[in-house]
Amino acid sequence: AADKIRLIPQDFLAELCEQIIQHLNRKIPGINTAELCQRIQTSGVDINIGDLAKIANTLSFLFSTAARNNLSTEELVTTLGSGVSTLPKHAVQVIRHVWNEQGKAIAVSEDAGNMATVGQFVDMKWKLGVAMSSDTCRSLKYPYVTVTLTVADPSGQITDKSFEMTIPQFKNFFRQFKEMASVLETV
């Protein structure tokens, strides 16, 4: 990750670090690396989403470990300087600035740590469709529902998961959501 971090311009790196801090503080559900990667690529930097995700995971680990050990800004910078693969100067400056400004706000609790191992639901979209025909069948007229779930995994990476359901499957899915809502109302 240290080699790839050299490619990222300082302003994008600062934005990534700030999003990671916000994610660790549970202010946002995750880091949209796909959107950030596209913006970095548009600026002329040749980086892929896998490399950006590795950088985000590394920085997230760095910030959460620093918070868990209650490191000061200088202790964090000293620790970064003593690493095997040294970070570029602009990256250390960004990390120093973000940690100095926002790092102390990271809340480290056991509950937050346990919740982070599961991931977090962000959004759900659905649409109704009808399959009219296929190569093997001239007239299907088969209704289906496509559901797209947006989920932030434990590291904060936001991904979309899509699946299709028949109408009876969707009715069962809906019934289960209604049951969850009624149980939540009693809490």
Evaluate the radius of gyration: 22 Å
Helix/strand/pairing class, anyone?
A: alpha+beta
Q: What overall geometry do the principal axes of the alpha carbons give?
A: elongated
SSE string: HHHHHHHEEEH
Query: Average pLDDT across residues?
Result: 82
- Intertermini distance: 44 Å
- Helix share, percent: 40-55%
Total number of distinct structural domains: 2
Tell me the β content.
15-25%
Question: Could you give the count of β-strands?
Answer: 3
Counting DSSP H or I runs of 4 or more residues, the number of helices is 8
Tell me about the biggest sheet? Answer: 3 strands, antiparallel
Chart the SSEs and their pairings.
Blueprint: H1 2-5, H2 10-24, H3 33-42, H4 49-68, H5 73-81, H6 89-102, H7 110-116, E1 120-131, E2 142-152, E3 158-166, H8 167-186
Antiparallel strand pairs: 1-2, 2-3
Summarize the structure in short:
This protein has 8 helices and 3 strands; from the N terminus they run αααααααβββα. It has 187 residues and is an alpha+beta fold.
